[in-house]
Amino acid sequence: NAGVTQTPKFRVLKTGQSMTLLCAQDMNHEYMYWYRQDPGMGLRLIHYSVGEGTTAKGEVPDGYNVSRLKKQNFLLGLESAAPSQTSVYFCASSYSRPGIFNYGYTFGSGTRLTVV
Amino acid sequence: AQRVTQPEKLLSVFKGAPVELKCNYSYSGSPELFWYVQYSRQRLQLLLRHISRESIKGFTADLNKGETSFHLKKPFAQEEDSAMYYCALRSSNTGKLIFGQGTTLQVKP
Q1: Which of A28, A73, B64, B109 is 20 to 30 A from residue B78's alpha carbon, by CA?
Q2: Is A60 within 8 Å of chain B by CB?
Q3: DSSP code of B28?
Q4: Are B48 and B56 in contact (CB under 8 A)?
Q5: How far from chain centre, in Å, is Cα B85?
Q6: CA distances from A68 to A98, A107, B98 (A)
Q7: Residue of A nearest to B2 (CA)
Q8: How far is A72 from chain B (nearest CA, A)?
């Protein structure tokens, strides 16, 4: 099925460990995004990309890095995990231009990350 | 500043009662507004967009530019409507989606 696929779905890390979350989309979307979802905070944008080879900071970028080497993939890295990064991470993608026939963002199913 | 505010963290109603989830926004320009729904531990799904003026699962939302609001309404709530609802604004300049804090709708039998 077409859509946005996130791996892994669950992960437990120890403080200081590193990991990479992978987001893959097969809809030829130009834009891709990483959000974190925390209770009472809604979804906050971490980083985003408007095209292959380009990335930009969102609202809460500290402690994260991203790469978009291929149009279909958007990677989120945690170099040294901290308990404050315990969250549910959602990837999303969209076309560059909103329009009548494009339906906003398509979200992945999320990655539940716990840092102990 | 671009901002989306959902003043209620939790809205609890009985089945068959009307529902209104509030959303106010701050944006200088012509906003594109959405409602997303997230059922328990699932991905966010687009519920509706102001541009398309549609009714999905009995829900409607009207953009009121004077009051800068985009409230979500349903005349008769169903138990299966219980979920987290997010109002979101898309910047026409950057394409970024800015979310409100979310409102949990609980429909009791």
Answers
A1: B64
A2: no
A3: S
A4: yes
A5: 6
A6: 21, 17, 21
A7: A59
A8: 18
Cβ of A110 and B97 within 8 Å? Answer: no
Residue the block writes with tokens 């729904």: B37
Whether A22 shows a pLDDT value over 70: the answer reads yes
pLDDT tens digits, one per residue of B1-54? 789 999 999 999 999 999 999 999 998 877 889 999 999 888 898 898 887 777
Estimate the share of chain A in helix, then strand, then coil, as percent rounded to the nearest 5. Answer: 5, 55, 45
Tell me which chain B residue has its CA closest to the CA of residue A95.
B95
**To the nearest whole number, what is the mean pLDDT of chain B?**
90
- Residue A34 forms contact with B (CB below 8 Å): no
- What's the token pair of residue B50? 């102001």
How far, in Å, CA of A60 to CA of A47, rounded?
Answer: 8
Looking at residue B29, its amino acid is G
Q: What is the pLDDT of residue B86?
A: 95
Task: Say if residue A10's pLDDT is above 70.
Answer: yes
∠ CA A46-B102-A88, rounded to 5°: 45
CB contact under 8 A, B98 and A45: yes
Residues B38/B84, Cβ–Cβ less than 8 Å: yes
Nearest CA in chain A to B95: A96
Using DSSP, state whether B72 is helix, strand or coil: strand
Q: What is the C-alpha to C-alpha distance for residues B30 and A77, in angstroms, rounded to an integer?
A: 34
